[in-house]
Design brief:
This protein has five helices and twelve strands. The protein is an alpha+beta fold and about 270 residues long. It has a six-stranded antiparallel beta sheet, with no helix packed on it. A four-stranded antiparallel beta sheet has the order 10-7-8-12, with no helix packed on it. It has a two-stranded antiparallel sheet with strand order 1-2. β3 and β4 form a beta hairpin. α2 crosses α4 and α3 crosses α4.
């Protein structure tokens, strides 16, 4: 008579969960031999648990991020394109072996497919927590600014609240940086020189421009001007420039020289 296979004895500490995997495709409940199990995992619950992990969507996201087609991925992992398509759409569930193959192609750990999804970025910046900073390197600042996005690490855009002081005979300091910039005048009047053209903006006016072109700002009049400024490090596509006569806002003076301004905001990418 064949010898009955002995089930390995499982020794657990109190810190371990009440259900463990014995390696023999059986779940061993933590109760005595004559005690009934407290629960039984239903098939629907298992399917729901697997669906919540969104494994297929994660496989598709990895594949598309790396610019790889279903056929190409299939060649790497030894699976057909049609089967991979079923994996991505959730019609079939991958085995750990197939999932490991896919993970290795993209240099990921198996845990990548089971970890909770990343939280949506949402950071509140309270006005009371912001720091008002003056123009650096000068005794008489021409502007003050507050970062509106300092709590977000590795942010792709930098929003600022800037207050430009009256000129009082001070000269301008034009600057340039990669990317583009958006400015919205909240109150007061502001003069902006972009290249060799000078624009004057009133409260409520806004401008979006290529910041790789030399530009500068200055307050007009004796009242400080406040503006919201957003800088973004992103290449700007070439486009036909608007003719000065088509500019909607304020006064346009082609060919004007540097204007008095001292408000050189931090370059994009600099963190406060």
């Amino acid at each position: 008579m064949a010898k009955k296979q002995e089930v390995p004895k499982i020794v657990r500490s109190k810190a371990e969960p009440s259900i463990v995997d014995d390696g023999l495709d059986e779940r061993v409940p933590d109760h005595g031999p004559n005690e009934p199990a407290d629960f039984q995992v239903e098939g629907d619950a298992i399917e729901s648990f697997i669906k919540d992990k969104r494994i297929g969507l994660r496989i598709r996201a990895l594949r598309q991020k790396n610019g790889m087609g279903l056929v190409d991925l299939g060649l790497h992992v030894g699976l057909s394109a049609s089967f991979l398509s079923q994996l991505e759409t959730g019609r079939v569930v991958p085995t750990l072996r197939n999932l490991a193959r896919i993970a290795m192609v993209f240099s990921k750990d198996l845990s990548y497919f089971f970890d909770p999804g990343p939280r949506t970025l949402f950071k509140v910046h309270r006005q009371a927590d912001r720091v008002r900073l003056p123009q650096s390197g000068v005794q008489d600042p021409m502007y003050y600014f507050e970062s509106l996005g300092y709590l977000v690490p590795d942010r792709q855009l930098d929003p600022y609240l800037a207050e430009f002081q009256p000129l009082a005979g001070r000269s301008s300091r034009p600057h340039q940086h990669a990317g583009c910039e958006f400015l919205y005048v909240l109150k007061g009047r502001l003069s902006i020189e972009h290249g060799d053209i000078l624009y004057e903006l009133d409260g409520g006016d806004s401008v979006y421009f290529d910041s790789s072109t030399t530009h500068s700002y200055s307050c007009i009049g004796d009242v400080p001007a406040t503006a919201l400024i957003v800088t973004l490090q992103q290449p700007v596509q070439e486009f036909k420039a608007t003719r000065p006569s088509e500019a909607r806002s304020g006064t346009v003076r082609p060919g004007s020289g540097p204007i008095a301004q001292g408000a050189k905001l931090p370059q994009p990418g600099r963190r406060l």
